[in-house]
Amino acid sequence: MIPSVKFRTFLKTLGPGILFASTAIGVSHLVQSTRAGAEYGFALVGFILAANLFKWPFFEFGSRYATATGRSLIDGYQMISPWYSRLYLLINLLSMFFVNAAVTFVAAGFLQNLFAIYPPPAFYYVPSLVLLCFSFGFLALGRYSLLDTGIKIIGSFMLISTLLAFFIALFKGPQSPVVYEPFSKWIGLESLPFVIALMGWMPSAIDSSTWNSLWTMERSKQSGYLPSVKETVFEFNIGFWTSAILSLCFVVLGAYLLYGTENSLPDNNVGFASGVVRLYAAQLGSWTFPIIAAAGFTIMLGTCIGVMDGYARSTARVISVMQGREQKPAAYLWWLGLITLGGFLVITLFMDAFNQLLSLATTISFLIAPVIALLNYRLVFSDHLSKADQPGTAMQLLSLAGIGFLVLFSLVMMYYSWWG
């Protein structure tokens, strides 16, 4: 009887962790992790593991803080200082259009590949516009309830199809011997921008930790159940570490199918999507083509919807908090519309520079990561949370190490950009 009760309460909590994983497993995994394996074999696995490990506390803090206090991280920023809320709003405004454009642009490539859609040059933007409008309509009509249900379906298909492709690749073996290259393979300055971009969204941008806190609160409202901090953290960790494991699966797929061969991935969204799907299908068996194509599209569709909701929800919230009044229902819809329009305009500017768009978006995310990490650390290890609700000493030490890690690589990136 006790296990069944625990399982039922877990189902009432289940949602935000899956939503996080579905949002994370997009560009960082499908694009960047695959490229890492294709171009460097397993040489960058250490960076991927480090990014997942050192960012983990700051995402976990979002879910922990929301359950322990009944407030979002954004509310916490305002309570410490109004300047933190203003800083967070600035970060959102600097990144939302580029991030939304990047994930939509990639998703449009997989949409075109899945349904063999090849519009004439004059209408090259139509697939991206369709996805932006679909995401807007999906969220405007269903809000969190439809988001929660849809992401669970998308996430399940994504997990099954990705693992299927991964195990088939392991069974068949690599196309060319894959070895762990010495440091000299990637330590050169020419590789640094890719390494920074890879870690920028691995597994996701740290500013999306505020989304976790908002989603956690919405899930409690939807289910009518207020979980304990332990239950919330457990549910979130399932989603987080699932996404971490899948990032390694994509590295293996890229390494086994591309590394050491004459094949490469094109520098445009349709070419990249087609290249990934057709290469996987050619090596894993032609029967896998619809599975790989559908998996790629559903992965990116889930990311598109999650990213748009996260930015709209968090921006509407931070503005209402700064104004000191209840959030108006129309504010969420207004920001959804603005993000849709802004993302579309960015796509029209970067249509012929696929990799540059991804690098710009991921680099922005990486450079602002230390700021959000510091804010989250200060909130969780404060009198906002009781000692019982705060993480243990090991997590505190890991979070301090994570802040150091993020600051170090941000400084390296700035040095390379200005003086390298």
Write up this protein:
The chain has 420 residues and is an all-alpha fold. The chain has a single domain, classed as Up-down Bundle (Amino acid/polyamine transporter I). The chain is 78% helix and 0% strand. Helix 2 runs antiparallel to helix 9 and helix 7 packs across helix 10. The longest helix has 47 residues, at 126-172. Residues 1-5 have low confidence and may be disordered.
What count of structural domains?
1
Number of helices: 15
List how many beta strands DSSP finds. 0
Shape: globular
CATH architecture: Up-down Bundle
Report the order of strands and helices: HHHHHHHHHHHHHHH
Rg, alpha carbons? 21 Å
CATH topology: Amino acid/polyamine transporter I
Q: Say which CATH homologous superfamily is assigned.
A: Amino acid/polyamine transporter I
* β-sheet strand percentage: under 5%
Helix content: over 70%
Largest sheet: none
Q: Can you tell me the CATH class?
A: Mainly Alpha
What value does the average pLDDT take? Answer: 83
Structural class: mainly alpha
Distance between the termini: 63 Å
pLDDT < 50 stretches: 1-5
Summarize the structure.
With 420 residues, the chain is mostly helical. It has helices at residues 2-13, 16-24, 27-40, 45-69, 73-80, 82-115, 126-172, 192-200, 209-223, 229-257, 269-284, 289-323, 329-350, 354-380, 393-419. 78% of the residues lie in helices and 0% in strands.
